[in-house]
């Protein structure tokens, strides 16, 4: 098992990030869907537990082309679909990803805490055990200066060149922007990666960790560079966007089947 804690510092408030994250997630789902692959939203509804309430989502990710060839070679058709459950009780969120074929032999679990005014300095934001702390790797993500895969780079999604007209934020050219930007918040994302498959376990877990790192970096670069799209939206606006996104994704899949 790999335990990584990614700390993503963002040039926005914690309240703004809640809207920004949901908006960016809906847009990313559209981008990833096509050619028989993509995201299917099964549920998106409020939930309530003792001392906790928020939004529950259930999704299927059909992204077989995103996994390495050596995994596709040993996995039967349909075995690469991922099933996601997420409980968004913002500012705390928990997400569980599993695979129907591997069942308990594969899981990605991540917990996120969003902290206003933080610059990534909290050493145990999610209050994990001493044993897990010993195994944890801390990774600070710099959305402006960390390298992204060439295939993921887009000039209009580069925080070093983007300037928000609505807020005046950006471009993030200063190497020390994380220490000086205002407003500021940090996403503390604790990720547990487990892949029990004899012979390729460590190789696959390392690949997944690298993929998640790149995903978090790319996603938050987009989130910042889409500031003028989400700034000023309400949660009610977001729910309408999510509902329309689900309809669009369903229609796209139905069209490809026919």
What tags apply to this protein structure?
phosphatidylcholine binding; Phosphatidylinositol transfer protein N-terminal domain-containing protein; alpha+beta; Alpha-D-Glucose-1,6-Bisphosphate, Chain A, domain 4; 31% strand; 258 residues; eight-stranded mixed β-sheet; 7 helices
Task: Give a description of the structure.
The protein is an alpha+beta fold and 258 residues long. The chain has a single domain, classed as 2-Layer Sandwich (Alpha-D-Glucose-1,6-Bisphosphate, Chain A, domain 4), CATH 3.30.530. It contains seven helices and eight strands, in the order E-H-E-E-H-E-E-E-H-E-H-E-H-H-H. The protein has helices at 14-32, 69-74, 130-135, 177-180, 201-225, 227-230, 235-257; strands spanning 2-10, 38-49, 52-62, 82-89, 92-99, 103-116, 136-141, 185-195. The protein has an eight-stranded mixed sheet with strand order 2-3-4-5-6-8-1-7. Helix 1 (14-32) crosses helix 5 (201-225) and helix 1 packs parallel to helix 7. The chain is globular, with a radius of gyration of 18 Å. The model has no long low-confidence stretch (mean pLDDT 91). Residues 1-247 form the Phosphatidylinositol transfer protein N-terminal domain. One of its GO terms (cellular component) is cytoplasm. It holds the Pfam family IP_trans. InterPro entries: PI_transfer, PI_transfer_N, START-like_dom_sf. GO terms for molecular function: phosphatidylcholine binding; phosphatidylcholine transporter activity; phosphatidylinositol binding; phosphatidylinositol transfer activity.
């Amino acid at each position: 098992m790999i335990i990584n804690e990614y700390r993503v510092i963002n040039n926005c408030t914690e309240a703004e990030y809640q809207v920004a994250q949901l908006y960016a997630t809906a847009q990313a789902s559209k981008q990833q869907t096509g050619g028989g692959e993509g995201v299917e939203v099964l549920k998106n509804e409020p939930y309530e537990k003792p001392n906790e309430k928020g939004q529950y989502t259930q999704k299927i990710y059909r992204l077989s082309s995103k996994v390495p060839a050596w995994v596709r070679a040993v996995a039967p058709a349909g075995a690469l679909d991922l099933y996601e459950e997420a409980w968004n009780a913002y500012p705390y969120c928990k997400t569980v990803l599993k695979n129907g074929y591997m069942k308990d032999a594969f899981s990605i679990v991540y917990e996120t805490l969003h902290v206003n005014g933080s610059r990534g300095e909290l050493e145990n934001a999610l209050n994990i055990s001493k044993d897990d702390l010993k195994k944890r790797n801390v990774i600070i993500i710099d959305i402006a200066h960390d390298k992204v895969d060439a295939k993921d780079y887009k000039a209009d999604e580069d925080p070093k060149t983007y300037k928000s007209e609505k807020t005046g934020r950006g471009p993030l050219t200063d190497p020390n922007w994380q220490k000086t930007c205002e407003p500021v918040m940090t996403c503390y994302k604790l990720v547990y990666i487990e892949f029990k498959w004899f012979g390729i376990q460590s190789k696959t877990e390392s690949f997944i960790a690298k993929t998640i790192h790149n995903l978090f970096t790319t996603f938050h670069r987009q989130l910042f560079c889409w500031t003028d799209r989400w700034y000023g939206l309400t949660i009610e606006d977001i729910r309408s966007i999510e509902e329309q996104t689900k309809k669009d994704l369903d229609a796209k899949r139905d069209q490809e089947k026919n």
